[in-house]
Write a structure and sequence with these properties.
single chain; mainly alpha; two-stranded antiparallel sheet; 17 helices; 2 strands; globular
Length: about 475
């Protein structure tokens, strides 16, 4: 199947009009007039970059304002951005970026931190002298990519739902058996159905790969809420800090978007990037493999094909990291050993971890910060289970595999920890929330009013040195 031409129609003189890709950009005026440089910017980026930028500025201003309101120190001694955001794991990532693993410069067990983010920090440090700010810059760029990809995936979902009566999940690409691909609505056979003809200026990559498509007005509200749901998630502070959540999301969401369009080699390459940043990349590899099998079967194509070899790419960084640690430490289980020695965590049955975490969640003798930490971890497992069931019910089996295996991984421990950050990067949750809000409009304001204050409180807590997760 070939994709119809997307060239703009000729004007009255018979000459082809310039393709601007600005039809949905508010205030742009006539397409292409004085704004041709925007042709190269995907509409998803134009739609999400302003709110992403404003949200990051707001979070940083909030941290600075509260530090000055709560501090009794002289003005000259008040902490700046770097000091406020250099908390907890930021220091561990910085040590890896500066000195590598197993360095005599520190004694921390950093084998639990995958190398993708420290490598990105080291690169950013070539241009930004402060390590903490360099890490935040990486999070800013990666997060900008992630919100654009989430926005685009939701546009695809909403457009396909309007163009087809199918209740199955979206497969956002048709496949020419000769190897060509093109974005279409699932099950409709029409190029870019319900989204308008996606212009060449909205994101055509080299080699004919298109990841970005333009929305109709009816689709943008759901896509905007999917992004807002991520930005206001109670633990979204970690998307601004020098943590690995933002860079994982940047790789994972673009990989999934490429997979939806059946660009499997690109999806595999981006999936390898996700797997290099955190242990959640292992469940993502599983989810991507399930997505491949499901999409091929629904398209009536053989599962065993050359494109399937791309699924070998995402596990490679994990295998390389494990092998590297084996060479440096002499142990194949360096990750698990570091967890055991540094954090007293061992692999155990989920109900064992639940029992231990329950005890901590209701132990009145400890600080309230730790009490709510334990409760948040229990809530993360519950959300993971509910989300997995909901995704299976809606036949989104690839997404369900990713979230389900991630939930199993974070709960198979003698106590729960860092699970809430696993849920933070579970991007199918934000797409699901947007779909639910389309049918139940009250979900949107309820989510915003409930989550925004909690998110702000955790920003204050984190930057004031309180344990959040």
């Amino acid at each position: 199947m070939t994709v119809p031409s997307e060239d703009p129609p000729p004007d009255r003189t018979g000459r082809a009009q310039p393709d601007s890709g600005l039809a949905a950009l508010p205030g742009s005026g006539a397409p292409g007039i004085g704004r041709t440089w925007l042709n190269w910017i995907p509409q998803a980026v134009r739609a999400t970059l302003p709110i992403w930028f404003v949200s990051r500025v707001t979070v940083i201003v909030l941290s600075l304002a509260t530090s000055r309101a709560l501090s009794g120190q002289p003005g000259a001694d008040l902490p700046g951005v770097s000091a406020l955001w250099n908390r907890w794991d930021v220091g561990l990532f910085t040590k890896v970026a500066r000195f590598g693993y197993e360095s005599p410069m520190y004694t921390d067990h950093t084998e639990v931190d995958f190398p993708g983010y420290p490598i990105a920090m080291r690169f950013a440090h070539l241009f930004i002298g402060d390590w903490t700010v360099a890490g935040m810059a990486v999070s800013f760029v990666a997060g900008a990519v992630a919100v654009a990809a989430i926005w685009q995936m939701q546009i695809d979902d909403t457009s396909a739902a309007g163009a087809s009566t199918s209740t199955g999940p979206v497969v956002s690409a048709s496949i020419d058996r000769s190897g060509g691909t093109g974005p279409v609505s699932a099950g409709t056979g029409r190029a870019a159905a319900g989204t308008g003809q996606a212009r060449g200026g909205t994101g055509r990559a080299a080699g004919g790969i298109r990841l970005w498509a333009g929305p109709g007005d009816q689709d943008r509200r759901a896509a905007d809420f999917a992004v807002l749901a991520l930005l206001l998630f109670p633990y979204a502070v970690f998307l601004c800090a020098g943590y690995s959540e933002a860079i994982f999301l940047g790789f994972a969401t673009t990989s999934w978007l490429a997979a939806r369009r059946q660009h499997w080699w690109l999806a595999g390459l981006l999936g390898a990037g996700a797997a290099s940043t955190r242990v959640t990349g292992i469940p993502f590899c599983v989810g991507l493999a399930v997505q491949y099998v499901v999409s091929r079967r629904r398209a009536g194509l053989p599962v065993f094909a050359t494109s399937g070899l791309a699924l070998a790419l995402p596990p490679l960084p994990v295998l390389a990291f494990v092998t590297y640690l084996r060479v440096r430490t002499g142990r194949w289980d360096s990750y698990a050993w570091a967890m055991r020695v540094g954090w007293h965590r061992d692999i155990d049955w989920p109900w064992v971890g639940w029992r231990a975490t329950w005890h901590g969640a209701f132990d009145a003798s400890q600080s309230s910060a730790w009490t709510w930490f334990w409760r948040g971890e229990m809530a993360a497992v519950v959300v993971g289970v509910v989300l997995t069931v909901a995704l299976v019910w809606s036949a989104r089996l690839g997404e369900a595999a990713f979230v389900g295996v991630a939930t199993l991984l974070m709960s198979s421990s003698n106590y729960y920890a860092s699970g809430i950050r696993t849920i933070l990067v579970a991007f199918p949750m934000y797409l699901l929330l947007a779909r639910v809000a389309t049918r139940c409009p009250w979900v949107r304001p309820a989510y915003i009013w409930l989550c925004a204050p909690v998110m702000a409180a955790f920003v204050v807590a984190f930057t004031q040195g309180q344990w959040v997760d």
